[in-house]
């Protein structure tokens, strides 16, 4: 009698186990699906670290200056971002750069680039291609701006709205396509800067904006021809702590409140 009872219960127990296993499997699949959904939702809400990287607070542009009014007594300037500053080597060859970029002095990072052209002493094309920033070295800021009176206006401001602009020397690590690595120095020296910092003119010999490209196979250090031209460099910053000059709604440049030059 006892044996008969156990025989009847065995199939029931087996069926119960199958139901339990089926329920457990369904729960496991539901939990896995929920976890996958949460993971996908999280990835869509929180972009990757590369996507959330901010633009550098400091930016530079190779600029063409267009003087407005009488060239000998201009009443304004227009900035164009198609500038092509240049420098010469002792053998008479010349490097010409175009482009823009930015840097963050706090993190010691920089980025940017553009196009380069190298010409021989006769003006014949020797090389051309792209160049890019590979690292930040230093930035030295100087006090002063145009200093051409309250009626002098500036147009085509290249920096972000509300940014400050200033003069100084920027040193970057760069790489030129098919030419190798070097050190690029780019500077913006407004007329007022040269008056406030006499050593820049004598003995350094500066009269305006320019560039140099050295190290590796580069020895482009003669900046005199470019400094006498309208090809130059402009610096801007959105860092609230940065000093400089800001543009008013009517196109005049004034010293940033609470800041230096």
**Percent range of helical residues:** 10-25%
Beta-strand share of residues: 35-45%
Q: Order of SSEs, N→C?
A: HHEEEEEEEEEHEEHEEE
Structural class: alpha+beta
Please state the CA-atom Rg, rounded to the nearest Å. Answer: 32 Å
**Mean pLDDT score:** 85
Q: What would the principal axes of the Cα set say about the shape?
A: globular
| Largest sheet features | 6 strands, antiparallel, barrel
Q: How many helical stretches?
A: 4
The end-to-end distance, rounded to whole angstroms, is: 106 Å
Count of distinct strands: 14
Provide the domain count.
2
Provide a descriptive summary of the structure in words.
With 261 residues, the chain is of the alpha+beta class. The chain has two domains: 50 residues; 201 residues, no CATH class. It is 22% helix and 43% strand. It contains four helices and 14 strands. It has a six-stranded antiparallel barrel. It has a two-stranded antiparallel sheet with strand order 13-14. The longest helix has 44 residues. It is globular, with a radius of gyration of 32 Å. 29% of the residues are buried. The N terminus is likely disordered.
Highlighted features:
single chain, 6-stranded antiparallel barrel, 2 domains, disordered N terminus, globular, 261 residues, 14 strands, alpha+beta, two-stranded antiparallel ribbon
């Amino acid at each position: 009698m006892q044996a008969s009872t156990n025989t009847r219960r065995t199939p029931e127990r087996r069926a119960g186990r199958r139901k339990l296993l089926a329920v457990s499997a369904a729960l496991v699949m539901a939990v896995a699906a929920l976890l996958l959904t949460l993971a996908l939702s999280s990835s869509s809400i929180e972009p990757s670290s590369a996507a959330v990287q901010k633009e550098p607070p400091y930016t530079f542009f190779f600029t063409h200056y267009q003087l407005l009014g009488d060239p000998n007594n201009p009443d304004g300037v227009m900035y164009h971002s198609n500038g092509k500053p240049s420098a010469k080597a002792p053998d008479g060859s010349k490097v010409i750069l175009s482009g823009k970029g930015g840097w963050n002095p706090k993190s010691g990072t920089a980025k940017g680039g553009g196009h380069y052209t190298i010409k021989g002493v006769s003006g014949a094309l020797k090389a051309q291609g792209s160049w890019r920033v590979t690292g930040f070295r230093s930035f030295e800021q100087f006090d002063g701006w145009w200093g051409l009176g309250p009626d002098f206006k500036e147009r085509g401001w290249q920096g972000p709205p509300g940014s400050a602009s200033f003069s100084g020397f920027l040193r970057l690590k760069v790489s030129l396509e098919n030419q190798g690595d070097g050190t690029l120095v780019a500077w913006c020296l407004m007329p007022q800067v040269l008056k406030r910092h006499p050593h820049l003119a004598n003995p350094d010999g500066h009269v305006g904006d320019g560039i140099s490209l050295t190290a590796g196979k580069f020895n482009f250090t003669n900046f005199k021809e470019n400094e006498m031209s309208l090809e130059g460099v402009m610096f801007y910053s959105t860092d609230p702590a940065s000093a400089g000059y800001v543009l008013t709604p009517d196109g005049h440049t004034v010293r940033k409140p609470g800041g230096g030059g």
